[in-house]
Amino acid sequence: MRVAGKGLVDRSDTVTFSFDGRSYDGFAGDTVASALLANDVRLMGRSFKYHRPRGVLTAGSEEPNALVTVGRGAASEPNVRATVQEIYDGLQVRSQNAWPSLDFDIMAVNNLVSPFLGAGFYYKTFMWPRKFWERVYEPVIRRAAGLGGLSGAHNPDSYERAFAFCDVLVIGAGPAGLMAALTAARGGADVILADEDALMGGRLNAETYEINGKLGHVWVAEVVDELAEMDNVRLMSRTTVTGAYDHGTFGALERVGHHHGRRDEGAPLECFWRIVAKHSILTGGALERPIAFQNNDRPGIMTAAAVRAYLNRWGVSPGKALTIFGNNDDAHRTALDLAEAGVRIAAVIDSRTDVDIKGDYPVYRGAQVFNTSGGKALESVSIRTINGVEKIQTDCLAMSGGWNPTVHLTCHMNGRPTWRPDIQAFVPSEGAIPGMVAAGACNGTFSTHGCLAEGAQVAGKVLGMLGKKQPDLPLPQAEDAPYRMAPLWAIAGKGRAWLDFQNDVSVKDIKQAAVENFRSVEHMKRYTTQGMATDQGKNSNVGALAVLADATGRGIPETGTTTFRPPYSPVSIAAMGAGAQGKGFAPERFTTSHSASVEAGAPMIEAGLWYRPSYFPKPGEKTWRQSCDREVGYVRKAVGICDVSTLGKIDIQGPDAAALLDFVYTNMFSTLKVGRVRYGLMLREDGTVMDDGTCARLGETHFVMTTTTAAAGAVMKHLEFVAQCLHPEWRVAMTSVTEQWAQFAVAGPKSRDLLNGVLDTPIDNDSWPFMACGDMSVLGVKGRLFRISFSGEHAYEIAVPARYGESLFRELVSRAQGVGGGAYGMEALNVLRIEKGFITHSEIHGRTTAFDVGMAGMISAKKDCIGKVMAGRPGLVAADRERLVGMKPVGAVKLLSAGAHIFAKDAEAVRENDEGYVTSVCFSPEVGTYIGLGFVKNGPERYGEVMRVVDHLRELEVEVEICPPVFFDPEGGRARG
Amino acid sequence: MAELKARTACGDALPIVIGAAQLTELDLGPVTSVTAWGSQQELSAAMKAAHGMAFPKPNRSGSKNAARCIWFGRNQALLIGAAADASLGEHAAIVDQSDAWCAVSLSGEATEAVLARLVPVDIRRAEFKRGHTVRTQVGHMPASITRTGPDSFMILVFRSMATTLIHELKQAMQSIVARRA
């Protein structure tokens, strides 16, 4: 219910939302949790394993119980914490992990059979029969135990990633954080202040503390206003710093669109920030811990600080008659605040005997709550005092077992927190994250004065390290009450006393782990699943350690903690992958002829990041094969045009350019004449073929190397490695010119005639013989011409600066069409090269040697080259290695498939009999059948042998005859003509 | 006689203005990659003599009249807006790159916010001043970024990636506007 005169919500702004289909009203500034509590809705979820009814436990991001699904359809978001989700008009919220409804959940039967479902139950029970685990047990268990589900549809929301840099990152905007940020900012540092809440201020918005005689939240607003005005400050609210990484790098998730229904075009739902800070100040506050006792999980039982937050920040009392139970002075603030607001208090119970408590309500000293009753809402609590047992009627229990500093981020680089016995809690260890200092409650300093002072002090220290002066900033006046508490973890008694609410882990489970010798804290965690839910054990970790320590007869510091890892709170995978949705996955590289190819109806295929035309369909053609065969015909009979700009082109210059080439290629390049091109083969250090291509000598100290499309980057890296590391004394420089030149293959018997129509100076066989190259001028534009061939035909490659690429492509294609030719795509290109037995990365796939591809003779004996020694190892030149051959079908089946394996004719098609594999296949119009390239043991020695080719995946079996890999014009006369 | 028509990397996709940021294609004139294979000192002296600019230090650029020279990598600089003098060829590889790079200018008040969505390095005004340059990434694309003014940057990516560059920048520009709404 709402409490008059309390809260920071805007009561003039009513907001309507729905929960499980029912409509509710709240106010602007409410979370789903506060608005539901205001409407007396306390049942908000079902527990993970036993489907026990649950309400909110906390008022923040650590919430383990009130997980809901927000939105409908494809954009719905599961496992949103009701304590974090702000309400807006039209917001739709659904409960999860309950069927058929939250109120009546059939799976609650798990709760009745709970004696059998304790920790380790699954490991012990579903061991047999083994095959049943994956098929039967796991799916059933997963369905019963679970969180919310994804819609299964494509996520229509957009996400964003961003980068930020600063001198000082302040994490958490409570009193310590605000004071640190203000000090650092006034001192002239570049500051980012990040806070997970929509409203900065931390506990100051949830308490009735005064600062400088003003209410805490008023002081907060003044400081935030001042910071917002400063150029050197970036305020990031709704932003959770989720991880601390190397070199002052932090991950942070900003909730950009979760708090309003209207999302503008292009507006992200979330933004994942990478923040790099010279220094960081952790002011993340502390989390109140629950106390474990029987049935401490009924809706209506929450932490004492959460009750104060609901009252002071949202103007909501979570009950009509409240009971407070704690082991520290802080808990009494809840009673004082409630009493002042006029809410009835049923009882205040303190586990300590030596405390002085004043209040106009029943007070029990030295007493403990040991059980509760009620179904889907709390009805009463049972307490044990020195006088005996008593039952107190109450609908809300506020409990406090003390505070745990939020040390999580300081553990992300494997730091371990330090146990402080005086506050019975872990605090950050100094230097756990380089450049980070902790201040305030997260450092174990709990008074408001202490937080403000420590915030100012650490900021001053950081300013000093940045070489800046600490500004003269008076410390505001605030309360400085000591934090007094006596440890209280679990109340002795029967039944299940819950520790980890989110994973349904009880005190009994922890004890059972110890009994079964899972005594190490990490083993206990895995055995019981304590701390493994989405809240990462924020509410249960220290409590569980205390119970384990007790059960194993050790102290808490000796028991130690489990490891906190990023993220601090859940981060959607979509946010981490932001920018990579759809085409954002990788850049698209388009050739200059791209639009001309697309206009011609060519389906584009990816080659690395490039897009290349597969084939150019003509009206009447029903299959790609028809187009491909026609395009092959262009090149064999007339002239074909193909964009080959995607091949890597590396300009190599310098007095030692030739020496470099001799060193990286197996064959000799220093002897190549200026104006000539040579084919070259390149090995890796291990002797395996790396890449192949042609290299043209344009001048005495000037070469242009071409690489395959896919290996362009790798070859460039390789050359740089050689030049920088192996021969730094060489005077040579490499420059990629792949992008500078648009290059087109002009191939076929009519290629020279076509070129002479566009070249400013015509060429003939004497001026431009096979493997000649040089500068030329085409239609008034200076370019380069290479007489090289990947089709076996009389062919050229013509290159012009990329700005003229599209224009030249259209001109060449149109002229080719005039003489019975035209453009050809990748399919035809592939057929042409297979017919000639030319290799690609299908053959030089990273496991084959020069010997395997029949090019052992290309490794020059006159010089050394990379890979030469390793390529000569006996195993790499053995005759029975799988070596390159050609093949054609000779049996009834005429189809070949790449990837199929090769066996002796009468051998069984099993792995042991494997004799090779097929790498490339095509239908050859020239041969009239399918042909293939592949590798077979003893390769060339088996020409003429009939073998069996089996493709187990496509269930294809073919009889082939092994033959030389060159099917067409083996003498090569056509290319020279 | 047919004539070859020149086409810029971005064509008519630019300019665009979205919110407080505008994106235009730049005509850089001649662009030459100068990569020292010999002494960088001698090269620098030759550049000073021929172009009035020393070889730039890492992450820096220089300018003289209409010409600029930006650091472009190890031993490498990009000479923009003037044809490279032949004398440089005695110390360095001189390679025409006039058509290799797509060059755009991103300017306006929202520029830094837009780039923060795509560029993983520190380009805050106090750290990355006018004339500072960096080889980095725009999204997944290798890029060169140079600050040309208080609110303007020159961005270079491979010519073949112009479409993706425009798409990525446009998306970031839209997201800034959508956030403000």
Automatic annotation (TrEMBL), chain A:
Keyword field contains Oxidoreductase: yes
Listed Gene3D superfamilies: 2Fe-2S iron-sulphur cluster binding domain, sarcosine oxidase, alpha subunit, N-terminal domain (3.10.20.440), FAD/NAD(P)-binding domain (3.50.50.60), Probable tRNA modification gtpase trme, domain 1 (3.30.1360.120)
Signal peptide, first to last residue: none
Protein name (database record): Sarcosine oxidase subunit alpha
Organism superkingdom: Bacteria
Keyword Transcription annotated: no
Keywords: Oxidoreductase
NCBIfam families linked to this entry: soxA (TIGR01372)
Domain GCVT N-terminal: 594-863
From TrEMBL, chain B:
InterPro entries: TrmE/GcvT-like
Protein name: Sarcosine oxidase subunit gamma
